[in-house]
Amino acid sequence: MTQESTTQTNEPITKSVIDTNPRKVQSRSFGSQSWYFVRRWPLIPLVIMTILLVTGLFAPAISPADPIEQSLGFRNFPPTWGKAMPEYNVVPNPADYDLETTKGKSAYNRAKKNSFPRSKYILGADNLGRDVLSRIVFGARISLQVAAWALTSGLIVGVGLGLLAGYFGGWTDEVLMRIVDVWLALPFILIALVIAQQFLHQGGAALSVVIFMIALTAWTPFVRQVRADVLTIRGQEYVLAARVAGASHNRLLFKHIMPGTLSTILVVATLQVGGLILTESALSFLGAGIPDPIPAWGKSVSDGRQFIEEAWWISFWPGFAIFLVTMSLNFFGDWLRDRLDPKLRQLD
User: Fold this and answer.
1) pLDDT tens, position by position, for the chain (348 residues)?
2) For every residue of the chain, which 3-state class applies, written as one string?
3) 249: exposed, middle or buried (Cβ count in 10 Å: 0-12, 13-18, 19+)
4) CB atoms within 10 A of CB 248
5) Alpha-carbon distance 314 to 318, whole Å?
6) Is 180 exposed, middle or buried (0-12, 13-18, 19+ CB in 10 A)?
7) What is the set of domains in the chain, with CATH numbers?
8) CA distances to 63, 135, 287 from 131, in Å
């Protein structure tokens, strides 16, 4: 009786152990694997950022028309979505020309060249008859150019000051941090408007002044984040050992401390790009940024606000481009932070 009961009680236990073995391979469905891949890797942000980079670098080859060419006959022209427009002479009729003569062939070729192409006004025209898609394409180049220069200057100044404040501490740290606090308290928008009135509207170097204004806001996040990392790293045992071994300040900073802050610098830089593009768009919208005739996303949104009811596409498409790029950069920065910080890794 005892042996039978022991056998009966052991059988289900053995079966349950076999069924719940963690080494048992369970195949995932294609939908589950796809969703896992999308969650693990920032696929959509990478695609959008790649499109932005390619568009900005090869804008003249991608743009369907001249972004500053005006045609008042097509002002506030609705989007064609790439469809043929016979009423605007898409294809000239060969019967109207004597193609057996040189004069007739020349006239026919000029008519084809001047005909209304399918690639024009795909997303509509603005209040001056300029192609909206072309201005968005060239606006990507301007946004990348402004963000690249402003971010480079912010990296150099912000990382340098953050290393000095965190490493030396004391009065150096106190002075630099108070400068950052005072700088953050300044009304940047009002200062930018004053600078725009003094320089941009008096024939000054418009683009360089805008880059300078935006660079004024790019360095403060690097100072705070790098300083916080340096305060932690400088107390590590390998840094103390290098100091005891007689390493100089430069060697300690750039050989032992700065490599530990690279992940933070990379994440902050990624997040800053979206903020810089948004800042440039806001300044252009307020009239303190990129002036005409240079195409800029914020300026295009501002140009269409008076015609939002009759020509919504003038403001919508540049605003949508700003939204997509900023959102993608923020999502990519969050993913990068989770990947580089061991405390925030959420891969599964």
Assistant:
1) 455 544 454 555 444 444 444 444 456 677 777 777 767 788 888 999 899 889 988 988 888 888 888 888 788 888 988 876 766 766 677 777 778 788 877 777 776 666 677 778 899 899 888 999 999 999 998 888 888 999 999 899 999 999 999 999 889 999 999 999 999 898 888 888 887 777 755 544 567 888 888 888 889 999 999 999 999 898 888 888 988 888 888 888 888 898 888 888 988 998 888 888 888 888 888 877 787 778 889 888 988 888 888 889 999 999 999 999 999 988 888 888 877 766 555 444
2) CHHHHHHHHHHHHHHHHHHCCCCCCCCCCHHHHHHHHHHHCCHHHHHHHHHHHHHHHCHHHHCCCCCCCCCHHHCCCCCCCCCCCHHHCCCCCHHHCCCCCHHHHHHHHHHHHCCCCCCCCCCCECCCCCEHHHHHHHHHHHHHHHHHHHHHHHHHHHHHHHHHHHHHCHHHHHHHHHHHHHHHHCCHHHHHHHHHHHCHHHCCCHHHHHHHHHHCCCCHHHHHHHHHHHHHHCCCHHHHHHHHCCCCHHHHHHHHHHHHHHHHHHHHHHHHHHHHHHHHHHHHHCCCCCCCCCCCHHHHHHHHHHHCCCCCHHHHHHHHHHHHHHHHHHHHHHHHHHHHCHHHCCCC
3) exposed
4) 11
5) 7
6) buried
7) 52-73+126-344 (1.10.3720.10), 84-117 (no CATH)
8) 9, 6, 21
| Amino acid sitting at position 240 | L
Q: Residue 119 corresponds to which tokens in the numbers above?
A: 């690639």
